[in-house]
UniProtKB/TrEMBL annotation:
This is Dihydrofolate reductase family protein. InterPro entries: DHFR-like_dom_sf (IPR024072), RibDG_C (IPR002734), Riboflavin_Biosynth_HTPR (IPR050765). Residues 7-165 form the Bacterial bifunctional deaminase-reductase C-terminal domain. Gene3D superfamilies: Dihydrofolate Reductase, subunit A.
Amino acid sequence: MTFHAAVFIATSLDGFIARPDGSIDWLTERGEQAGDTGYDEFMAAVDTVVVGRNTYEKALSFGFWPYEGKQVEVLSTTLDADADERIIVHRTLDGLVQTLEDRGAKRVYTDGGRVIQTFLRAGLLNELTITVVPVLLGSGFSLFGDLDHDINLTHNATRTLGAGLIQSDYTVKR
């Protein structure tokens, strides 16, 4: 594999990345209080963004395109292939990986619960940056979901951000 795939995501303390209705208000209402999360620096090093349909549609609701200047790939079996000129839609993981390899993608930001789970299960993720927000949601979209085997991680660093957010960086062991 020629590309490095990384996750940069926030979860509730109980491991959810969004409410059952897809809302992330619990995160956005605390965003400014967190201070510098390192996201801008992370994005500056990324050349490609891979998301699923739900994350793509959430990005459309922001009122601005958050992936400006990045190649954006969407892994979806349902999104119209011509949905948006800013993206390329892939129906299969194999097709997506082949495109990343062919295009020479170097650093890939993997975002969205299902896409992260898919990359993790396929052994394609290299690193995880997870910011835990001090709130319990009780239900919603889980970051990891069920796994069929252990995935060992190396803890690299943990830092405390504003508003009680805790951010940890991990490397996926091969």
